[in-house]
């Protein structure tokens, strides 16, 4: 089965990992700092905190943002459920705003309609690797006194109006799952320019430990002393995986270039295939294409999905609207809340896209899809 996405691992990655395995630090060592520094090169210098997954990054970001029971978090339903679930786990009420029909990204006007005095944060998702409209979202959140969070699980290395992802929101989260542009097997990160937000993130992901004597209540106990002032969790990403991440980040430009080439080829090869809508791109955005999401019109998405998979081509659907999941239905959320997102989902199909996809394999994907639709 040709997958819709997969990791690109070479001998430099293997060497990076084995070097750590032969060393003294498997976790909490120098590779973590090296990974965070390498990642900051792609976030416009905004400092980053490495964590164990993209889901952990969202949880950490919401904690850093001060999300508590009774707060509201506005986000998109066209995302993996973790974007909403991590806010709900903190006791927040998640409010789903509709998306732009062409990009699938959060619609700033829909966000505005949902803001209240309880809104703590607005979380945009850079769907498929195409950054959301951050200038408009920033205006919206500033008027509401809310924080802007970017779920950039898809968009590492992307830019919006020549500003890199990582600089566009108060907190930015990344994912390094194997299907993403860069992988650490499992892993994530939080970027925050504000020192207070970054400190909150760094503490929460490490049990809430306070090691700085100047900040401790009993600083003179001894060199071993550490304190917990607020509860946290162990979301530390180990050196073994950070070493893989450093090696991967050094090839990020190449990964992005190849993904862009494949997207350009898809755009040409599929432009005359009937019954398809190809992904949109804003002129002021430089995407990092994680997905190639086509829209299969005329109610044929299920048929095309089944026939493509029967042909050995692992297409995927991204995503079930988050509030359709039973856990949200049981909380009172109902279908029909976000008609543009639901219409997008009803037609969306992600075609294979990853750096090691060959032109011949891509031609096979296109030929198979065209034969089904013609």
Beta-strand percentage? Answer: 5-15%
- Kindly report how far apart the N and C termini lie: 23 Å
Considering the protein shown, what is the CATH homologous superfamily of the largest domain?
Answer: Type I PLP-dependent aspartate aminotransferase-like (Major domain)
- Annotated CATH architecture of the largest domain: 3-Layer(aba) Sandwich
The description of the largest β-sheet is:
7 strands, mixed
In one word, what is the shape? Answer: globular
| Poorly predicted residue ranges | none
Instruction: Report the order of strands and helices.
Output: HHEHEHEHEHEEEEEHEEHHEEEHHHEH
Q: What is the structural class? A: alpha/beta
Give the C-alpha Rg. 21 Å
Cofactor: pyridoxal 5'-phosphate
Protein name: UDP-4-amino-4, 6-dideoxy-N-acetyl-beta-L-altrosamine transaminase
EC number: 2.6.1.92
Family: Belongs to the DegT/DnrJ/EryC1 family.
